[in-house]
Structure prediction request, 276 residues.
Amino acid sequence: MAVTARQRGTEWLASAGLRPTRQRLALAELLVGDGENRHVTAESLYALSSTSGEKVSLATVYNTLRAFCEAGLMNEVVVDGSKSYFDTRMDEHPHFYWEDSHALTDAPAETLRIEGLPDAPDGMAVARVDVVIRLRRA
Amino acid sequence: MAVTARQRGTEWLASAGLRPTRQRLALAELLVGDGENRHVTAESLYALSSTSGEKVSLATVYNTLRAFCEAGLMNEVVVDGSKSYFDTRMDEHPHFYWEDSHALTDAPAETLRIEGLPDAPDGMAVARVDVVIRLRRA
DNA sequence: TTAAGTGCAAATTATTTGCAGTAAG
DNA sequence: CTTACTGCAAATAATTTGCACTTAA
Prediction:
């Protein structure tokens, strides 16, 4: 039988050992309820939650997104100095950043390969390599 | 004969058609006076200017960095949601971001090659491809 | 002379935090 | 019960802006 959005949200929280509170469940459902990955800002998720049944305060949206990141459920993506973006997809992959609409989407990663990545300096390790393809209207 | 820091700053401003005011010259000298490229934040440049002879107000540092970017003399690099970084080097090149010290440096670019970059979506063009190698203590 | 640039202080924006109340285990 | 979570409002941090003053051209 079909997996429901609520189930997906519940399992997602459980997989990270996070308490399934009403608010977290509501946000989890909005984020992973359909099994797709999603890119949000605190504001955009807050707006989403406001039009859905379960209201969540903006401060809690912020705190919850941070909690999800710390729990390893999401990643923060830095593309715009003035806002924080969050991505439910956890593997390393390139992004399109649409400069006119300030939207963030996944870039098709299949073909992308980074060759000759420089070694990390002494005593340092590469934590992650971010690739952001900035798009403007042609 | 040797090129002075002041000369470099003056020419740098002139090349972009910017008025060489006392403050801009002071900042230009700090940025390109030694012919090296440099990564700064508004605060770090403000701190630098405070220890040098010519004082510049923080607001002017912000406005001036913006002006330099618009004039095509610098680029903004987004690596940390909470601060803006500015780079005097204008060609496309990868960066190291030192997560513990919040420092930004150039990564050796010679060997780096990005293969199979996805096409820009319809009606869009690739404005820039940012590559940030995030480093943490090993 | 005059438009552009500067400095301050006040305003704005995104985000975090303190704390009293609420709910999960 | 007890500790973690939530919501609000106030606090903070980075950056921008309004406006009177100064200066380069």
